[in-house]
Amino acid sequence: MPEYKAPLREIKFVMNELLDMPGHYASIPAFADVATPDMVDAILTEGAKFCEQELAPLNRIGDIEGCTRNDDGSVTTPTGFKEAYAKFVEGGWPSLAHDVEHGGQGLPESLGTVMSEMVGTSNWSWGMYPGLSHGAMNTIALHGTHEQKETYLTKLVSGEWTGTMCLTESHCGSDLGILKTKAEANADGSYAITGSKIFISAGEHDMSGNIVHIVLARLPGAPEGTKGISLFIVPKFLPNEDGTPGERNTLICGSIEHKMGIHGNATCVMNFDGAKGWLIGPENKGLNCMFTFMNTARIGTALQGATASEASFQGALAYAKDRLAMRSLTGPKAPEKAADPIIVHPDVRRMLLTQKAFAEGGRALVYLAAQQNDIVNKGETEEQRKEADELLGFLTPIAKAFLTESGLESANLGMQVFGGHGFIAEWGMEQIVRDTRISTIYEGTTGIQALDLLGRKVLMTQGASLRNFTKMVHKFCQAEEGNEELAALVKPLAEVNKEWGDLTMKIGMTAMKNRDEVGAASVDYLMYSGYAVLGYLWARMAKVAQDALANGTTEEDYYKAKLTTAKFYFARILPRTKAHAATMLAGADSLMDLAEEHFAF
Hints:
By secondary structure, the protein is α+β, with helices and mostly antiparallel strands. It has 19 helices and eleven strands. Helix content is about 55%, strand content about 10%. The strands form three sheets. Strands 3, 4, 5, 6, 7, 10 and 11 form a seven-stranded mixed beta sheet that branches.
């Protein structure tokens, strides 16, 4: 099993040197006094210890044991999960990035994201239990009543209770407009919720005193489609007046899905049989409110993609340095040994550098998104909040889909580095592949995210959201135009940045005649966008490294490695945009001309 080591140097590079998080925190009054450099450093250090010592050892156990549904519908989590969660709560980790008024520590959301990265890399399955709670907290904080916040939010923030989101049903998939779960008003102002929800991560478990389900349902007479969906809080145990869990609600885990990965997390079918719930937000506006949860989850899933790259890279790198096979093509590199370590072989280097580029670039993208989230939530002016919200909205589908696709690629490459041993469970690399595969599907598939990006975020804004980002890239390229050492990065980045806008214009023009052109181009457009965004971030990271070397540093090897990885990205990864550009312009006819009846043999 790969031994997880929190990449604190890489984390601090992105936080402190690339994104200037210390200056960012100091500029926001809500964080200036609490997110001091010393405090942030202490949190990172302690968080790393918890993940390395408590969570990482449980990763393999969770995969082997999985979760067990008992006859009464209760679920037993793998050995050690419950105890680790108790330590997590005792350490105050659930309350890290939540408002003080609800029992939180008032620290930035972006700092919580960094902690989530370490948790997710060390133990993906375990991390989903508190991860789902995070979305429930944000939803109630933004849309709940004062009473709902007092009753539920304080318990969720402390970690005493956990949360879930109950969206889809067996016939729905991503089309929530056809859901059938119903909500009928009770005389006391509550609602009776009846229906079945599927794919409910952390839907039932033994780790917390109560589970707060955030459920989409339809009121009697509600409009059809997504305009007729309402949102409800439905707890496993109905709270007593003193806030303790009381009577058991009429909901139950009907079964646990048998899935290919993330075995340590209970993915449940949840059956609601007239369960008592309370409306969150206005009637028939539930999907609008749920987007708070869904967007939180999408950034969380983007982070999972980056953690897959990191975990697989750590395992593959250690193995490649140790495994002996064949001799280097340019002569023996370890003549005293029977063969050379496989890290000397160019193709192994290709795989490792691809993983490294995606892991470090993905971290930069998620942290950039998290930084914008800080401003959206706590920025001083409306203008700052609006600008950050627009950038975050543009980056979210790119981060979610691109980082999970690249995370899956990294996981597969890590398994490939191991050769035949990668297929053997005890090494742990095939688990990373199995766990990661779901990330491109849940919280909106790559295709759904691509439609959101190209259709809603770009074309529906007449390209404004794209132009806002490409202007940032253009300014960077202009500033570094005379930088000869970075010319191999800046020139192709500027070309891709211009082409990005040109491609958008062409697709927009063809889509005016045929809407299928949007769907036909969307996934290639999203992947192109992902490579472009990571290209921009890698160019910026290269500039930081160049400046550090020019100014004198005791970490010369570290910064040289950053520059080398950036050059690898531009030489061997960014050129993938050429294929995506050609494919997205191929048109819808190549996809739609084949008649349905001719698909069969």
